[in-house]
């Protein structure tokens, strides 16, 4: 049987199921902890650190830390918000994020987080890395300029035999996502769309499709990211 | 008290941000009551005739002339504002930043599919022409910028709110849908 435990998030008492990840427990209690590399239904990886919270005084990633009895979690502390802002800004300067020219603008999670955190300009200098666009796949275009290396596509998109369609190539700062040339060739339309939806940014785009939803009516154009979770509380 | 003086310019931009400033509709009449314009393409004043309070900069720096104008603005304006994605991060012109400048010029003047009649393969380099920079720079990497208004273009309401807040000293109202990067 599931054991119910008591935790506090920013001083508010919450109920959670023992062993549940902090992000999920918070969500059930109508509290939004920002995430980026995390994707519902896929094993969390804790790589982007956006979901960092203070657990009993220590910084931990909320998407990979299970709750336990009497856990005290700080989510909205200034120190933590400041840290999250810095991560978002670093992601913007590390890639080439030309929002006005991106098909994902308005439904991009990175952009939505920047909106939520009121980013006007990153405090760090832009690095303008030299990146390539891979348009060899018949169904998908991969734009490394926008990739934030969250591994969501690697972890979520598998073929019918359970093989990953995407993989990391090269190492360190040269690392990039590659589409398996063999499995990639037989991608179905549904899988290509799924890959685009899984990608939090505009690094994976379905070919020959654009502006199905016009700018101004997209997911995060009128409602901040996380507001659907916060509405549960009301 | 005399009215605050505003100057504007477009560097490596498309004038879209200026169009967005005009997009404040009838509030432009209020704006004229609130401020006086100095150097700006809107009134076609080419040179600063006095010190200004606010400078609105559209576009990033892609050539030596942009840098010169931006430095001139910094010298003459108390407060400088980056208006739009190009001023903030280079914008679409900065999409060339990953390509060496030599390749860019060769594509534009020699190898490009639309190039005709350049039989002598000349890349313009007259000293009269501003020299291109190695890449397009955001304004705040060239001079100190005081504020940033994102958007492509920044929504008219954002520009209006920012100007009025700055002039009246009140806090800026920022509804969610007003600050957008596209």
Walkthrough of the structure:
The complex is a heterodimer of chains A (234) and B (182). Chain A is an alpha+beta fold and 234 residues long. Chain A has 2 domains: 4-76, Ubiquitin-like (UB roll); 85-206, Alpha-Beta Plaits (2-Layer Sandwich), CATH 3.30.70. Chain A has helices spanning 22-28, 78-94, 109-116, 152-156, 181-185, 189-198, 227-231; strands at 4-9, 12-17, 52-55, 58-61, 71-74, 133-134, 140-143, 166-169, 176-179, 204-206. The longest helix of chain A has 17 residues, at 78-94. Chain B has 182 residues and is of the alpha/beta class. Chain B has one domain (5-95, 135-178): Rossmann fold (3-Layer(aba) Sandwich). In chain B, the strands form 2 sheets. Chain B has a 5-stranded parallel beta sheet with strand order 2-1-3-5-7, sandwiched between helices. In chain B, strands 4-6 form a two-stranded antiparallel ribbon. Helix content of chain B is 31%, strand content 19%. At the A-B interface, helix 3 of A face helix 4 and strand 7 of B.
How would you summarize the topology of this molecule?
The complex is a heterodimer of chains A (234) and B (182).
Chain A lengths: L3 E6 L2 E6 L4 H7 L23 E4 L2 E4 L9 E4 L3 H17 L14 H8 L16 E2 L5 E4 L8 H5 L9 E4 L6 E4 L1 H5 L3 H10 L5 E3 L20 H5 L3
Parallel strand pairs in A: 1-5
Antiparallel strand pairs in A: 1-2, 3-4, 3-5, 6-7, 7-10, 8-9
Chain B lengths: L4 E6 L5 H7 L4 H8 L1 E2 L14 E7 L2 E3 H13 E7 L1 H5 L11 H11 L20 E6 L9 E3 L6 H13 L14
């Amino acid at each position: 049987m599931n054991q119910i435990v008591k935790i506090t998030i920013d001083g508010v008492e919450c109920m959670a199921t023992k062993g549940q990840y902090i992000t999920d427990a918070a969500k059930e209690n109508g509290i939004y902890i920002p995430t980026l590399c995390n994707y519902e239904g896929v094993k969390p990886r804790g790589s982007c650190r956006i979901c960092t919270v203070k657990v009993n005084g220590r910084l931990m990633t909320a998407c990979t830390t299970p709750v336990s009895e009497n856990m005290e979690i700080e989510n909205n502390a200034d120190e933590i918000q400041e840290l999250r802002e810095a991560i978002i800004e670093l992601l913007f300067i590390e890639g080439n994020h030309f929002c006005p020219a991106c098909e994902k603008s308005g439904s991009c999670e990175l952009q939505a987080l920047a909106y939520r955190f009121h980013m006007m300009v990153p405090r760090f200098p832009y690095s303008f890395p030299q990146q390539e666009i891979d348009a060899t796949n018949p169904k998908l275009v991969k734009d490394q300029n926008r990739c934030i290396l969250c591994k969501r596509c690697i972890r979520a998109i598998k073929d019918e035999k359970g093989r990953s369609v995407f993989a990391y190539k090269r190492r360190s700062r040269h690392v990039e996502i590659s589409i398996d040339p063999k499995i990639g060739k037989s991608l179905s339309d549904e899988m290509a769309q799924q890959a685009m939806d899984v990608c939090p940014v505009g690094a994976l785009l379905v070919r020959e499709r654009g502006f199905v939803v016009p700018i101004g009516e997209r997911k995060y154009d009128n409602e901040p990211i996380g507001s659907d979770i916060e509405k549960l509380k009301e | 008290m005399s009215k605050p003086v505003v100057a504007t310019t477009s560097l490596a931009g498309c004038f879209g941000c200026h169009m967005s400033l005009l997009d404040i509709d009838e509030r432009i009449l209020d704006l004229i009551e609130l401020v006086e314009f100095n150097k700006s393409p809107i009134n076609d004043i080419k040179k600063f005739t006095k010190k200004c309070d606010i400078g609105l900069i559209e576009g990033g720096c892609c050539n030596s002339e942009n840098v010169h104008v931006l430095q001139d603005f910094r010298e003459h304006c108390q407060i400088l504002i980056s208006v739009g994605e190009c001023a903030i991060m280079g914008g679409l012109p900065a999409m060339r930043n990953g390509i060496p400048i030599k390749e860019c010029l060769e594509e534009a003047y020699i190898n490009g599919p639309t190039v005709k009649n350049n039989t002598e393969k000349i890349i313009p380099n007259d000293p009269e022409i501003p020299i291109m920079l190695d890449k397009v720079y955001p304004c705040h990497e060239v001079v100190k910028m005081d504020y940033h208004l994102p958007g492509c273009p920044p929504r008219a309401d954002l520009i209006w709110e920012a100007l009025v807040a700055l002039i009246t000293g009140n806090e800026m109202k920022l509804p969610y849908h007003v600050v957008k990067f596209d």
